[in-house]
């Protein structure tokens, strides 16, 4: 258990920083004058950029090392989240979210660390614990974020706390993660060529399930906070407690139990 604890810490800090903002993100954009369409378009743009940039970021971590790429991307995201609290222009917010969409791949890189560091017979248990810590972050984060949002300059305070957590996570990465590089012969310099090597005929069911699951989660998280505010008139703290309840009862805890993720 403790041998790979640095992975769990990185996962937890990464997601708790995000969970501070998720319940109030849509409400904040509405307060700035954005329409529901603009909010949805912004979220779709972020997700599309995540899809496009995942392969290049993974290839960069193969070449320059997991530690370096993870550290640099987390530091840039820390600055980006701080800037989100400083700007009120929707155009500037879009530009910042583009940067985040291209570089926010901490969870992806943590999974590559598991593949690199953990023996195959232990990977299922490690993934189960990672999901457990992910759920824990979504229990704690929304409650804290909801209460902070109700204070003066609430969203600015949220982004400051988020940025600080990102910087702490960067420090954890720098001091604990081994810098692993993967030597691989490439026919082309383009990392997108790796996609051509995938057996799509055999793997498309798994990819389809992953895509549908991600789309459902995105649709839910991008709208639930705003809906709780506009439809049910919940305060940010009440929305935070609602989000925490979801994290507490999430399927990740069941997954942890079913994979028999013992603490060793």
TrEMBL record:
Lineage: Eukaryota, Metazoa, Ecdysozoa, Arthropoda, Hexapoda
Main location: membrane
UniProt keywords, alphabetically: Membrane, Transmembrane, Transmembrane helix, Transport
Keyword Ribonucleoprotein appears in the UniProt entry: no
Cell compartment(s), UniProt: Membrane
Domain Major facilitator superfamily (MFS) profile as annotated: residue spans: 3-264
Organism: Sipha flava (yellow sugarcane aphid)
Protein name (Swiss-Prot/TrEMBL): Major facilitator superfamily domain-containing protein 9
InterPro entries from the UniProt entry: MFS, MFS_dom, MFS_trans_sf, Sugar_transporter_CS, Tet-R_TetA/multi-R_MdtG-like
Residues spanning the membrane: 6-25, 37-56, 68-96, 155-177, 209-228
GO molecular function annotation: transmembrane transporter activity
UniProt membrane topology term: Multi-pass membrane protein
Domain of life: Eukaryota
PROSITE patterns tied to this protein: MFS, SUGAR_TRANSPORT_1
GO cellular component annotations of the record: membrane
